[in-house]
């Protein structure tokens, strides 16, 4: 119920009020929606607060919009490790810039008596919400890393579901509380746009780019005399500075060319690799090609095979799971249960998709190391206070003897058929099955 209010009702209310409230204020009170600058009251601290705030927030908002509008391209870019690292580092740096700017602006607004006189309660509320929003964003980047990668599978489809009038909470219901607070504070800020200084975002003077040029004409003769004298001085200084600048640019170009000549040569003619380096590079390419080939073989096997071999029953352990790749090309693991029968379940955490550990503790649970969720190997259920809320899916299996005869099977719903006595299954091999239709 609370999630429905915060992530369905609040977004639609915020968007509605933001659009129609802003239109009403611009039409009925046109003199109040432009920025109410306080620079003439105090400008020294404004530079140190406004500049980092605007640089940081513009960069972050543009990155969020790019991921929202082009999620496929964004996800493809984030698949490269270096791009992901740069994006995460840049996002964290811009978040810190925003926080520093807000702190300076907050101190400036509280400490200056002149600015206090024009500060409203709404200004303080917006400043508080912006600071909280930035702190939640930094906390998400630090505590729940790689958000640039997993956000395209959680927050982005959730927002698109709102835009298509088919809200789906399943995308964000399992997200950490820090991320949820970041989302809620964003909707609150959108809600307050028509009632605060935030509405000055709509007052960007884009018409200045297309307006006709303006010429200022002076009719005072004394101004003409002063202007002529100034122009003569400026012409002399301009020629002198132009010559100095040209000489400096030429000298700098020569020095830069001399220092970067080897780099330019290497760029156009390629690096000069030794025979050993060429061999190592070829071996690395062959390893990558082999890894791709092995993955395609696995995909082909799972597409065409009714059964996939896991291991012999004698190799299963009740305390250490045996990893495998299931039909969805995701990790899974197999244990031997207390009744001697196999337990096969997914090893992909239902929180953010991390691979769950395969070591069983004394309570019969396995740990996801990413955000500390414990799952019961019998039922797949997480512990009550875990970040993960959904259980690990149970996979169906089949036991086949050396002669190829199906001895016993279990569906993903827990239905067991066949002979499950220890004597009958001890020499069998364990297979995962493609569908639950496999029965003895």
Structure, explained:
- The protein is α+β, with helices and mostly antiparallel strands and 440 residues long.
- It has 2 domains: 2-209, Transmembrane di-heme cytochromes, Chain C (Fumarate Reductase Cytochrome B subunit, Up-down Bundle); 304-433, Rieske [2Fe-2S] iron-sulphur domain (Rieske Iron-sulfur Protein), CATH 2.102.10.
- Helices cover 53% and strands 10% of the residues.
- Strands 1-10-7-8-9 form a 5-stranded antiparallel sheet, with no helix packed on it. It has a 3-stranded antiparallel sheet with strand order 2-3-4, with no helix packed on it.
- A hairpin with a 5-residue loop joins strand 2 (322-325) and strand 3.
- Helix 1 runs parallel beside helix 9 (177-192), helix 2 (44-69) packs across helix 3 (71-78) and helix 6 (121-143) packs antiparallel against helix 9 (177-192).
- The protein is elongated and about 115 Å long.
- The two termini are 45 Å apart.
- The mean pLDDT is 82.
Give structural attributes.
single chain; 440 residues; alpha+beta; Fumarate Reductase Cytochrome B subunit; Rieske Iron-sulfur Protein; 2 domains; 3-stranded antiparallel beta sheet; 10 strands; 53% helix
């Amino acid at each position: 119920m609370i999630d429905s209010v915060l992530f369905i009702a609040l977004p639609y209310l915020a968007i509605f009020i933001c659009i129609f409230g802003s239109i009403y204020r611009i039409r009925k009170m046109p003199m109040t929606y432009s920025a109410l600058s306080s620079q003439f009251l105090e400008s020294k601290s404004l530079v140190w607060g406004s500049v980092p705030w605007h640089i940081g927030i513009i960069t972050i908002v543009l990155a969020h919009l790019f991921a929202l509008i082009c999620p496929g391209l964004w996800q493809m870019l984030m698949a490269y490790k270096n791009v992901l690292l740069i994006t995460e580092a840049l996002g964290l740096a811009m978040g810190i810039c925003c926080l520093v700017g807000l702190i300076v602006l907050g101190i400036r607004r509280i400490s200056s008596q002149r600015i206090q006189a024009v500060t409203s309660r709404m200004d303080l509320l917006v400043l508080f919400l912006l600071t909280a929003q930035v702190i939640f964003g930094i906390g998400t980047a630090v505590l729940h890393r790689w958000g640039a990668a997993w956000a395209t599978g959680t927050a982005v489809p959730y927002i698109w579901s709102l835009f298509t009038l088919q809200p789906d909470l399943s995308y964000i219901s399992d997200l950490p509380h820090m991320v949820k607070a970041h989302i809620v504070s964003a909707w609150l800020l959108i809600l307050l746009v028509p009632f605060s200084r935030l509405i000055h975002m709509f007052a960007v003077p884009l018409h200045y780019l297309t307006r006709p040029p303006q010429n200022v004409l002076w009719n005072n003769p004394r101004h003409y005399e002063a202007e002529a004298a100034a122009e003569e001085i400026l012409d002399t200084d301009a020629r002198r500075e132009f010559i100095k600048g040209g000489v400096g640019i030429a000298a700098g170009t020569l020095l830069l060319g001399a220092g970067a000549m080897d780099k330019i040569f290497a760029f156009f003619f390629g690096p000069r690799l030794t025979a050993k380096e060429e061999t190592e590079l070829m071996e690395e390419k062959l390893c990558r090609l082999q890894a791709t080939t092995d993955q395609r073989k696995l995909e082909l096997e799972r597409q065409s095979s009714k059964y996939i071999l896991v291991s012999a029953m004698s190799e299963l352990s009740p305390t250490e799971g045996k990893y495998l790749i299931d039909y969805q090309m995701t990790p899974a693991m197999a244990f031997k249960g207390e009744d001697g029968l196999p337990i096969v379940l997914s090893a992909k955490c239902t929180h953010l998709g991390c691979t769950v550990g395969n070591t069983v503790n004394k309570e019969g649970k396995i740990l996801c190391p990413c955000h500390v969720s414990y799952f019961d190997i019998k039922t797949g259920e997480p512990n009550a206070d875990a970040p993960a809320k959904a259980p690990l899916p149970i996979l169906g299996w089949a036991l086949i003897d050396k002669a190829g005869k199906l001895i016993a099977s279990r569906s993903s719903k827990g239905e067991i058929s066949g002979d499950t006595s220890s004597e009958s299954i001890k020499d069998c091999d364990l297979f995962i099955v493609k569908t639950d239709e496999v029965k003895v």
